[in-house]
Amino acid sequence: MGAYILRRLLLIIPTLLGIMIINFTLVQFVPGGPIEQILANIEGEGDVFQGIAGGGGGELSAASDESAGRRGLPADFIAQLEAEFGFDKPPLERFLDMLWNYMRLDFGESYFRSVSVIDLVLEKMPVSISLGLWSTVIAYLVSIPLGIRKAVRDGSSFDTWTSGAIIVAYAIPGFLFAILLLVLFAGGSYWQIFPLRGLTSDNWEQLSPLGKVADYFWHITLPVLASTISAFATLTLLTKNSFLDEIKKAYVITARAKGLKESRVLYGHIFRNAMLIVIAGFPAVFIGVFFSGSLIIETIFSLDGLGRLGFEAAVARDYPVIFGTLFIFGLIGLIVGILSDLMYVLVDPRIDFEKREG
Fold first, then answer.
1. Are 178 and 169 in contact (CB under 8 A)?
2. Under 8 Å between Cβ of 222 and 242
3. Phi, psi (5° rounding) for residue 241?
4. Which positions ≥6 away from 293 have C-beta within 8 Å?
5. Domains in the chain: boundaries
6. Is the per-residue pLDDT at 60 higher than 60?
7. Tens digits of per-residue pLDDT, 174-206?
8. Looking only at Cα atoms, what is the longest distance across the chain?
9. What is the CA angle 141-146-149, rounded to 5?
10. Which long-range contacts link 158-167 to residues 24+ away (Cβ below 8 Å)?
11. d(Cα 76, Cα 90) in Å, to the nearest integer?
């Protein structure tokens, strides 16, 4: 297992390199850049796409220079901006400089916020972790018992109507459910039970420790429900199908023939084998919830998390934030993949990835 983990760790390097090369290359062809954004803001246009149409990926083309000239901006001002942002260098040199800095864990500073990328990520991380962690925990706490119950009562009326409810929940878009929750429970048109925005109240620092915990859960309830609604279906059906596969196997029939109680057969024999894929997939499920749909949920509930950070960086062409977060999240995703494999081995030591690769 040690050799397998070592190979997976070494594979992270070329994988991250490929991710960065592809995205850095694509950015070179995207219209607009941080300099064009600044020029648009100087002229009060507020949108880079209403300003300079030429250039890509931060490169100022001849059309950009002409447009800047028409605006009355001096050429030395443009050159100073290029030098400040590093766009006076060729793309290959900029890319190599970026990789060298990343190797030293130096992800640079935001172009427009004067804050390091690491500090920005750490500042926004609690919101995204709260959404991802609690959504995953709640999904497991509900889906696993429900999936087991559906497997035991397969084909019954309970199985039928719960499957219908799950499919309906899965079909509802997360943002639509979030808006519905706001309308019903956040003072939209009915009850003012939960707060409309933020992760904590303005007087959070003055609250007692127990009051802080209560205030935190009070604020996170609706966003977590909105981000969890679609996760129930996949996990519940996965649990049910895993248990159904195990129930039909010979060792279960043998255990029942020995006169063991059904609960002992279910939780003493079937549970461990059936839950292998469900429990081992916890890290991947958490990362999936962590990354997917966070932008919409954070926007609707006015939460300042990583989803909004990435969106705002993309709109403003804040390249250090874009590439820094891309590198960090790519690294997290690859490490989580290794952790998922380790979870499989922890749940079932019979699994040997080295023999499978061989």
1. no
2. no
3. -65, -35
4. 174, 175, 227, 230
5. 2-89, 118-357
6. no
7. 778 888 888 888 776 678 788 877 777 878 788
8. 91
9. 135
10. 166/232, 166/233, 166/236, 166/237, 167/233
11. 19
212 vs 50: which has the higher pLDDT: 212
For the stretch 135-167, pLDDT in tens is 888 888 888 889 888 988 888 899 899 988 888
Q: Which residue has the tokens 């279906």?
A: 233
DSSP 8-state symbol, 130: H
What's the CA dihedral at 329, 335, 336, 341 to 10 degrees? Answer: 160
* Beta strands per DSSP E along 228-292: none
Amino acid at residue number 184: L
Classify residue 38 as exposed, middle or buried by CB count within 10 Å of its CB (0-12, 13-18, 19+): buried
**What is the homologous superfamily of the domain 118-357 according to CATH?**
MetI-like (1.10.3720.10)
Q: With 70 as the cut, is the pLDDT of residue 64 above it?
A: no
Cα distances (Å, whole numbers) of residue 255 to 147, 239, 251, 274: 22, 21, 6, 16
Q: Give the C-alpha separation, 273 to 24, whole Å.
A: 44
pLDDT at 231: 72
Residue-wise over 50-76: b if at least 16 C-beta within 10 A, else e?
ebbebbbbbbbeeebbebbeeeebeee
Cβ atoms of 277 and 289 within 8 Å: the answer is no
134 pLDDT exceeds 50? yes
135 neighbors 205 (Cβ within 8 angstroms): no
φ, ψ at 303 (rounded to 5°): -105, 130
Q: Average of pLDDT values for 49-62?
A: 40
- The whole model's pTM is what? 0.71
- The span from the CA of 251 to the CA of 254, in Å, is 5
Residue 290 has pLDDT above 70, yes or no: no
